[in-house]
Amino acid sequence: MGPPRHGMSWLRRGSAVLLTWAAVAAMAVTAVNALSTPAWAAPAKRDVPAVTDEADSGDDTLAIGFAGPLSGASMAVGRSMQNGAQLAVDEANQRGLRIAGKSYRLKLVSQDDRADPGTAEYVARYLVGQRVIGVVGHWTSGTSLVAAPVYHAAGVIQVTPSAMSRKLTSLSYPRIFRTIPNNEGVGRLAADYAIARLGVKTVVTIDDRTPFGQGLAEQFARQAEAQGARVLGRYSVSDKTSDFNAPLMEARKQAPDLIFFGGLNWQAGILAKAIRRLKLEARLMASAGTVGLPFLMRAGADANGALVLEPGPPQDRMPGWKGFRQRYSQSFDSNIDLYAVFAYEAAQAIIQGIRQAGSSDPELVARAMHRLRFEGVSGTVAFNEEGDLLNPTFTMYEVKDQRWVPVERFSGLPR
């Protein structure tokens, strides 16, 4: 008997909306969940709840949290990551989990942080109150950094499948891990590619002032200068703006070969259109996390030529991709975002840590996770002493005919 089927039916071209609101009042944290499922949702598949705060609370159930954007502009990737984590939990339950001779079931407690740091702190406190062993999340570096002290104080494991800021693992919390590279490696390798492969000599950077976007843009600029390119301008915008006119008007005077953007996919799509509308000749290189349908849908034909360096090999080159795609498709009525794989591996890492430790004590589980080495969907998963992924791989993608095409693959961190 296979794992249970879950109907998210969000499809990036769909409109299902799932909102989770977390609030703190008088030292108590409560959550209210509202789920809207469109009429065309497949009836044979059940929903994955956004909040699981009742039932399965007996002493034979162990909880793992998920925190990410289940509503808003980043909803598509958030729901796909949630599905990935849920699939890992379902498969573990199918296999069975025994600790000290007793059988346990796992449950996933999911929360919507809306990719908002303020909400993320409330979500973290809620999940701590649900006595989760570990959390798969959060999506952005800003939300992850706000939540990290909450998890650390409570002794909860945090494994992010997507937050790249080097600041996160440099906190030296012993229970923080990530299943992707940090932004130092991504920024340096992206800059090396731009200078060596594209022949870029002049660059302008634009960032969204977040720990992720700003940190990535700064690292890109440093490496570009180290490789002999000139950085003509460095600009910052709000992470909520859709107006890039001011930095682009300045960039038009400078005529750079390339514009590097540190920020999320939805803004990158707007930026791509603005670059062409203002008739800049510069190519756009956007941040990791941009590969996917949201960017293409926002940018349209103006997406062509855009470049993004993403973690991991191309999906069809991942060792476990074929089986993962089949199992995912059998369980969820949705497209598979690239980061669903890394969320699946993040949940797997927590579960494997529980098995190896023979305990549900997060302290013992985290110690076991530092010794883990297993074959995930994307390749070998193992962590260094700070919790960063060992021996990461990367893929450079380019938009050709409004489709993402892998153009080069890299192994290991740049020197």
UniProtKB/TrEMBL annotation:
Signal peptide: 1-41
Keywords from the named record: Signal
Positions of the Leucine-binding protein domain: 62-401
Keyword match Signal: yes
InterPro entries, per database record: Leu-bd, Peripla_BP_I
Keyword field contains Lipid metabolism: no
Family: Belongs to the leucine-binding protein family.
Listed name of the protein: Branched-chain amino acid transport system substrate-binding protein
